[in-house]
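tokens incoming
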């Protein structure tokens, strides 16, 4: 039986003008919907919302980064 896998890729480096370039890749299967819902919850709790990263303040960014580290889903 074929299982679907979903791949999400994001990069950062434009804001640093090439001094630092980071690429993140996440590959998920059946847990995709749970993780999507969890990410939306984290965005709401951190108050980052759908703002671009560079437009969020440092407190919201820190909350957005730290929250997944304490969740069993990740």
């Amino acid at each position: 039986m074929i299982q679907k896998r979903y791949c999400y890729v994001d990069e950062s480096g434009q804001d640093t003008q090439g001094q630092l370039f980071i690429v993140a890749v996440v590959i998920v299967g059946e847990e995709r919907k749970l993780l999507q819902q969890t990410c939306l919850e984290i965005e709401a709790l951190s108050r980052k919302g759908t703002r671009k990263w560079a437009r969020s303040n440092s407190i919201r960014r820190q909350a957005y980064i730290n929250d997944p580290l304490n969740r069993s889903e990740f």
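note: Residues 5 and 38 are 18 Å apart (CA to CA).
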